[in-house]
Amino acid sequence: MFTGLVEARGTLVRRTQHGRDARLAIRGELVPQGRDPIALGESIAVDGVCLTVDTIVEPGGPGPTVFEVDASSETLEKTTLGSLAVGSAVNLERALPIGGRLGGHIVSGHVDGVGRVAEKIPTGAALKVVFEAPAELARYIATKGSICVSGVSLTVNGVSGSCFDVMLIPHTRDKTSLDGLAVGSQVNLEVDVLARYVARLLEVGRAGDPSSSEPSPDSRLLERLRASGYV
User: Concatenated DSSP letters for 27-72?
Assistant: First the structure.
């Protein structure tokens, strides 16, 4: 599990194809104070994609670490990693340790879809960015809710159809790769897992049990949510 708080901005230094799969070598300074160095088998979110460290090429120490991960054809096809050019910047985050501070929101590292940058609007020291999401993800994105964009936990500022916008504060612009994205650039999107479960609960509640004349617990909950103005 991750939080969407980027720990380092890394670089894709090498890509080695193995049929439809690929091995990616990534450089990043991922040894925060008070934590152990990167270990074989640990999970690291690379632009929001949970990947497993297979090889440590350069241990790092006081400087950047170079590590290798394997990306399957499914990962390459369903995320931006398949088209990522060597030399590109990537956002890196190690998995949340037990007892760690959850400063962003719960992020699984399982990308739901690929969106694109639709518009960038300077707003003082901040930057308003409009993203276009796949239509099937729109129902999970809500104003003032959370979303993970290429590994970065962000608050949704507004929603219009399948588009949503966020405000990038100076810290986010400086510490992540989002500021450098051009209009049209693709991004990995992971919707809030809580929104997914609520949507599923509502689907089941609407369906109910056709063989029973009694309302199901889920349908009763749905009615309570509707009466309270949440649906």
Answer: EE----TTSPPP-TT-EEEETTEEEEEEEEEE--TTS-EEEEEEE-
Q: Is 200 buried (19+), middle (13-18) or exposed (0-12) by CB count in 10 A? A: exposed
Tell me how far apart the alpha carbons of residues 180 and 172 are, in angstroms, rounded to a whole number: 11
Question: 172 is written with which tokens?
Answer: 């986010």
Residue 28 resides in a domain? yes
Distance CA 62, CA 26 (A): 17
Helix, strand or coil, per DSSP, at residue 218: helix
Three-state SS sequence of 142-190: CCCCEEEECCEEEECCEEECCEEEEEECHHHHHHCCHHHCCCCCEEEEE
Radius of gyration, alpha carbons of the chain: 20
Q: Which tokens in the block code for residue 2?
A: 């991750």
Residue 101 lies in a domain: no
Q: The CATH number of the domain where 156 resides is what? A: 2.40.30.20
pTM beyond 0.70: yes
Low pLDDT (below 70) residues in the chain: 31-35, 60-63, 204-222, 225-226, 228-231
φ, ψ (nearest 5 deg) of residue 152: -110, 125
- Which backbone phi and psi does 60 adopt, to 5 degrees? 95, -90
Within 8 A by CB and 6+ apart from 20, the residues are 73, 76
